[in-house]
Amino acid sequence: MTMQLPFTREQFFDVFAAYNAALWPGVLALWIASVVMAVLLFARSPRACDRVVSALLAVHWAWSALAYHVAFFTSINPAAWFFAALFLVEAVLFVWWGTVRGSLRFAAEPSAGAPVAWALIGYSLVYPAINAALHGTFVRIPAFGVPCPTTIFTAGLLMRATPRARVLSIVPIVWSAIGGSAASLLGVRADYALPVAGFALVLSLIVPRRRARLVRTQA
Known about the structure:
- This protein is mostly helical.
- The chain has one domain (about 10-205).
- Helix content is about 70%, strand content about 0%.
- The protein has helices at about 10-40, 50-70, 80-100, 115-135, 145-160, 165-185, 195-205.
- Helix 1 packs antiparallel against helix 2, helix 4 packs antiparallel against helix 5 and helix 5 (about 145-160) packs parallel to helix 7 (about 195-205).
């Protein structure tokens, strides 16, 4: 049975055209902040940086909820109001668990799943360029600060988080299924990474973590 959407493919991309035209300075600022944070984490930044990462993720989810779902997507899909509420819940959880309580650490020790986590983080940051290359434009595409790259970015970071953030993983896993199922219908091939991100995040929650072996050579 083919999934039916309450909007056309043309209307879907019209939403992104309006979003990109109206909010591009904020989208660019969010992308730059995300790149800087990823670099700091890769360099194993100080422990205090972890609260900032949680705050940034809260901004990602709140931005997707309000700047995308409420401001634009609700015009073609009534379910966007429910999606916005779901994304706001995720934002609040990041503020509470990560920023207020400081319960999450993202600069984890090397592990077997680290390459996949970093691949997802990197993919989310080049997501706008991938979409532009696939569609031949930067104007009518999902760029950044929208649900799908936000979910991929978050999945990669949660795979690096200690302790395992099971509650915080629920919404990203749910959206990886929702967005991934619509990717082929809407022709957004860059979103084929969503199910991969969701599956990788699930595995990171249930498979025992093993530290990566450090290979030492003797002189």
